[in-house]
Amino acid sequence: VAMEEQSFSRPCQEGEVESPNEAALLALMEKTGYSMVQENGQRKFGGPPPGWEGPPPPRGCEVFVGKIPRDMYEDELVPVFERAGHIYEFRLMMEFSGENRGYAFVMYTTREAAQRAIHLLDNYEIRPGKFIGVCVSLDNCRLFIGSIPKDKKKEEIQQEMMKVTDGVVDVIVYPSATDKSKNRGFAFVEYESHKAAAMARRKLIPGTFQLWGHTIQVDWAEPEKDVDDETMQRVRVLYVRNLMLDTTEETLRSEFSLLKPGSVERVKKLTDYAFIHFHNREDALAAQQSMNGKLIDGSPIEVTLAKPASKDGGRRFATRASHNSVAVGALYGDSSFLLPSKEESGISWGTGIVSNGLCARPLSLPPRLDNPYAVDLERCVYPFLPGSSLVPAGLQSLKPSQLSSAVSLLEFYCYKNGWSLPDYYLYSTAGHEGKTLLIYKVVINSIRSSYMPDKVCTILEDAKELAAQNALWNL
Questions:
Q1: Angle at 19 between CA 17 and CA 24, to 5 degrees
Q2: E strand intervals along 352-471
Q3: This prediction's pTM
Q4: One-character DSSP codes across 236-288
Q5: Residues 156, 159, 161, CA angle at the centre, nearest 5°?
Q6: Distances (CA, A) of 407 to 37, 150, 347, 463
Q7: pLDDT tens, 347-406?
Q8: What is the CA radius of gyration of the chain?
Q9: CA neighbor of 29 nearest in space, from 14, 7, 13, 56
Q10: DSSP 3-state assignment of 70?
């Protein structure tokens, strides 16, 4: 593939798309000393900046910027983002027409500057009525590979992936919760770089690629959440995975208390993983070293320090740790196990009852999985009178009290926050007695987040509703 490259240190050549504000860009380059090159659909400002010596900044120094007006360019954007700190590189995604594609990546020289940019500029009004979104950007080197035969071992999967893609450095496979001799039908493939992972995804993504006669499913794995060292130094919670389904919280409390009786504060087990809370960090570290790899109910367990679920720029980007989730990090937080209150959710839950002098009657509809987000709603129908005027309505004109399903509420929540609408990806697995079980993964691209519940359903609509509930729970 020929690489499109355009340098703005010279006039545009014939056949190149001239930037509508080339003079302003040249003035910016002259003022800052940064270079600017356009290649492969993106325009790079800097990378490295003038006088930079040594390797590029470490992981965690880059932010993603969304909802940029299509006619806004570096001459306007760079001064705004320089407020947060020294920019190493600014990459604006470009259309061939010369407009930008609505998003960019800004790499700072320090993590502190990146966090400052999120704090200062997320939901910043870049133009009257135009608000940008800013969140952390991580170079993802890991792919999720689904629909793998469950009898395949790690070595077989890695060997096969190395045959069909380049740059494979590791494969992560988790054993089934019910039969430890089998995998769960999916694996994570780690590549040497983001570019290698992206090339592999491009090759495998059409949906027709087969391994061992099975059409595999390919997606980005959710990046493991980076937690700063200062926060991790205070963690006193252990994340335990690869548990048997029938292992109880009482068994875990007993096993993790053997080293020092009374050291465990509480235990929370969810399917085949658990969080063990200790009274102090020293006991947690000692238990981690003692218990990692130990057999509990016949299964060798993995024990690591749990990563606190946190918020960046007021948003949560991490999912609950889940045995079905593509998230590999072990994240915890009390709010991970509780439904948000009416006040915390940012949505006002009313009764939805209106009175216009007409007689209403209750609408008898089946409940949706005991939806916790549809509380206090009275579902009614009114007579539609001939001659009534009809006005087109959209989601933005409705109130949360008029939405009874989690699917609709999730769309409302995304609209309210200026995010892209959720995408739903359907997966299936074989259940008891050969029954087909369904599960959806919810992806919100604008905040680079994905969510998958820890339960499967037999009914398509229930699976979608459950996935939306889970996403709301995490958001």
A1: 160
A2: 361-362, 380-381, 423-430, 436-444, 449-451
A3: 0.47
A4: -EEEEES--TT--HHHHHHHHTSSSTT-EEEEEEETTEEEEEESSHHHHHHHH
A5: 105
A6: 43, 32, 15, 11
A7: 333 333 333 333 444 433 344 444 444 433 445 566 666 667 777 777 667 776 677 788
A8: 25
A9: 7
A10: coil
